Amino acid sequence: MMSRTVSSWILSSARNGIVLQGKGRLYSICIPNRNKTKWKLVFSKKQLYPAGSSCLDSVFSLKAFRHTSTEEEHFSFQLSPSQINDILRAGELSHKILTFNGKNANSVLRFESNQLASNTPIEDRRSAATCLQTKGMMFGVFDGHGGSACAQAVSDRLLHYIAVSLMSRQTLEELELAVECMKPVLPILQWHKHPNDVEYREITSQYFENLRVYWQHLLDLDTELGFSLEEAMICAFKRLDSDISLEVQAPQENELMRNVALQVAFSGATACVAHIDGVHLHVANTGDCRAVLGVHEEDGTWSTLPLTRDHNAVDEFEIRRLKREHPGSEEKTLFVNDRLLGILMPSRAFGDVQLKWSKELQHSVLENSCDVGDLNIYQYVPPNYHTPPYLTAEPEVTYHKLRSKDKFLVIASDGLWEMLSNEKVVKLVAGHLSELNVQKPQLAFEKPVNLGYMHSLLLQRKNKGIASLDQNIATHLIRHAIGSNEYGEVDQEKLAAMLTLPEDLARMYRDDITVTVVYFNSETVENYYRNNK
User: Fold this and answer.
1) 30 pairs with which residues across the strands?
2) Per-residue b/e over 236-275, b at no fewer than 16 CB within 10 Å?
């Protein structure tokens, strides 16, 4: 029934110009036009980053199964279970922390991540890295809008800015000396990337030069104490956003770098980054990505602990903050239809210079850029644009001291949270954990072990209704996010329909989804408290 009822309703709603509330994304205007719905993008949609810059851009299986238009005469939502799995698992990434002498001193046990595209190419990005010159691990999720350029740049650069902000003066001096003497520079981060993630040396070298300017600035501060972790994260976020703005204003002979700088600055991205060092967890958030902690209480129940607040036009704190920063005469025009200036859903973001620069600066930069039309970048000044900047990349930083009952951290773009509540996400991860534990092979057997005993074990497992699971928890969450029915169960026909939606329709029903789940090592956390009584 579902395939006929839901799929036909999806198609008819699209052709009649119906848009589902909450899924329409940034800078988009829905224009019903007779029998079809088009999305007019106000800002850039083309991307200069090569297609391989995101691991999902080159996934042939997704492209093969998705329809290209709602105008196709013959629609089929049929996918086999293996085809569904191929699509859902294409972006899987997992990493287990190495142990030494059978012990893991790291409070992070492992992490698992995945992405599913709605936009083509996907506008979300993710990062994970171990700090080599300082302590800790970092995990980031970045939700792009108006294209993927800004999210790509921020995912490539932000963790470096945070790591440099945390370095001691001596380490910064050693870095600078090595560069001056043209000696090899010690690596700052050990990245944990998907095999298809690509770096582009020409762009990376320019980014390194600007990172160097930043650490020179830190050396000029002439402070011995350095930043606290909260200060370091705030400073890194703000400095990177400032660099994005300055890079597009600077004269640039290299055409590729000039065009990339334009696309990065005139698109945007929200960001959520977690830094974990022992029991110390800091989460910096700008925009509407979200981080939630899964807590296993003493009575065996699970609870959620949100570590971020969505920065958007419906959040009371953000509304009050922006009203304080702008004249009372703009009170009624700051937020229109639950969007900042009627344009943007998040109230904090990287890039988006068209909501930060003066009209004059926007005009000057675009006038001096000869090929902005080819990049689909146009000057657009929203109504009532009087006292910029209206947007900031400054994050809110939350500190949490890990306890043994804190079992995992979920960081995800809003594509997940639009579909699943905090509580539902924690419940799914907790259930997945317990089912995986049940599936682990038994280490102790009754003696003697005979065929009858093994048969009884198999029957017990069958009676418990254990189905084959996604090994990657992020995939499990994405599967439930787009495939769950009203009873919270995955409906295979709905899942197939959501995965084969044509490109001009998928965005109306689901956003890009990126999920990273970090599991904590309870034994390490307990040892910390045992040794620090």
Assistant:
1) 39
2) bbbbbbebbbebbeeebeeeebbbbbbbbbbbbbbbbbbb
Task: Give 352-397 pLDDT, tens digit per residue.
Answer: 999 999 999 998 998 877 677 667 786 778 889 999 999 999 999 9
437 CB burial (10 A radius; 0-12, 13-18, 19+): exposed
Element (H, E) at 437: helix 422-439
CB atoms within 10 A of CB 490: 16
Structure tokens at 2: 């579902």
Rounded to 10 degrees, the C-alpha dihedral 112/118/124/126 comes to 10
Phi, psi of 472 (to 5 degrees): -90, 120
pLDDT in tens, 390-437: 999 999 999 999 999 999 999 999 999 999 999 999 999 999 998 877
User: From CA 264, how far away is CA 48, in angstroms rounded?
Assistant: 10
CA distances from 157 to 81, 403, 412 (A): 38, 31, 19
- Convert 353-422 into a string of H (helix), E (strand) and C (coil): HHHCCCHHHHHHHHHCCCCCCCCCCCCCCCCCCCCCCCCECCCEEEEEECCCCEEEEEEECHHHHCCCCH
CA angle 297, 300, 305 (to 5 degrees): 35
Q: Whole-model pTM?
A: 0.85
Q: What are phi and psi of 373, to 5 degrees?
A: -65, -40
Give how far Cα 94 sits from Cα of 103, 409, 453, 468, Å.
20, 14, 35, 19
Pairing assessment for the beta strands 280-286 and 290-296 based on DSSP bridges? unpaired
* Token pair 């993630």 in the structure block, residue: 197
